[in-house]
Amino acid sequence: MKKTYILLISSILTLLLITSLGVTYLPSIFGFVLFRTKQYAVFNDQHLPLDACLFDKKQTLDNESTHELILYFPSENTYNYLTIVPEHKLIGLANRTNKNLYVLPGEKLAYMCPEGSLFTPLNTLFLNQLFKHHFSKGSIEFDTFDDLKKMGKRILIKNTVL
After folding, report:
1. Starting at the edge strand that comes first in sequence, how are the strands of the sheet with 53-61 ordered?
2. Across 42-46, 68-72, 113-117, 153-157, least confident range
3. Which residues partner with 81 through β-bridges?
4. Per-residue pLDDT tens for 108-150?
5. N or C: which end of the chain has fewer CB within 10 A?
6. How many CA atoms lie within 13 Å of 139's alpha carbon, on the beta-carbon side?
7. How far is residue 140's CA from residue 122's CA, in Å, rounded to a whole number?
8. Mean pLDDT in the chain?
9. How far apart are the C-alpha atoms of 135 and 141, rounded to whole Å?
């Protein structure tokens, strides 16, 4: 009986080790582990805090590292999360958002499937007429749309560390 428990525990630990190494070194296959950031605060245009949290995501493609923010709305079903890439001034909507991001209870840790990295930028030339946005050193602002309009006219993300 004791050997069975030891074998079970060692198997579970081995799987966790393989998965964590895979997530670290091969995220395109295993996905991404995301940590909630407290560096930013999320408000609406009335400066009221929103029921939203931000997760940090680092992605490397062709030896180029990109920092992304995943804006997660726990109470929103249609637009579960948006991807924001500050250095490229992009805000995007992922396909099938409810199937690509799994947030653990407590909203401190999340897992994103590899397909969750793919998104359609909302601030392209075609959509830019409908979607106003502004990036500055300490903040990101953008117009709400569709179901997100119930949160306010605009969403503001402010860096609380600067």
Report:
1. 101-103, 109-112, 32-36, 53-61, 64-72, 81-85, 90-94, 119-121
2. 113-117
3. 72
4. 888 888 888 788 888 765 655 557 889 998 999 999 888 888 9
5. N
6. 14
7. 14
8. 82
9. 7
